[in-house]
Amino acid sequence: PAKPIQIKVVLLGDAAVGKSSLVLRFVNDEFQENKEPTIGAAFLTQKVRLDDTVLKLDLWDTAGQERFHSLAPMYYRNAQAAVVVYDITRAQSLDRAKSWIKELQRQAKPNIVIALVGNKLDLVADQENEEAEDADADADADADADADTDAEHTTATEGKERQVQTSTARAYAEESGLLFLETSAKTGEGVVETFTEIAKKLDLN
Ligand code: GTP
Ligand code: MG
Prior knowledge:
Blueprint: E1 5-13, H1 19-28, E2 41-50, E3 53-62, H2 72-76, E4 81-87, H3 91-107, E5 113-119, H4 137-151, H5 166-176, E6 179-182, H6 191-201
Parallel strand pairs: 1-3, 1-4, 4-5, 5-6
Antiparallel strand pairs: 2-3
The structure holds guanosine-5'-triphosphate and magnesium ion.
Residues 13, 15-21, 32-35, 37-38, 63-65, 119-120, 122-123, 184-186 line the site of guanosine-5'-triphosphate.
Protein name: Vacuolar protein sorting-associated protein 21
Keywords: Nucleotide-binding
Region (Disordered): 128-168
């Protein structure tokens, strides 16, 4: 069999959005509720098969804490692909993702494949997405009243709400030429798909 093609992939995004958790799910099919922050960066590899081709992904999982920002160029330089992660329950993390994407578009390889990934989908699994906004005002008022009542009975970890609508992030990704997926490192939803979509979009010649 032919030697696998080696591909350098960098993960970028705000602290605690779930970069390391996505990698851990993809590589080991595991999840940890209290994953410690990454210091500097971590390196793991995983293979993906595309028809008759095997790609070996070299995954550079960077640290999202601001004090590590200056290290990032070492990891995205020469990368053929980037996974830029935000947390769908934290709007500010999408702003951070957008600024990483601008930095990549200025400083990384010109043909780099970028995937924008909205993680922690499991936290909003039973919540409505954008279509809910079409509901009439009375229904909204009733829903708000219910939500207020419910809030008194939920704990801090349960009280997460979606702050980034799928349609908003997808529109941004489309106009910027990025792949777009929503994922859960906790359930595994969308995780393998993220790396397979990247592999498909790479120009391997
Ligand atoms: P830095 O290394 O500091 O940049 O953070 P990170 O982006 O690598 O985040 P990490 O994977 O360490 O996850 C942060 C926290 O979010 C951990 O407590 C994870 O268990 C949790 N987490 C990550 N992904 C998910 C997810 O999909 N769903 C839920 N519910 N929690 C998640
Ligand atoms: Mg990490």
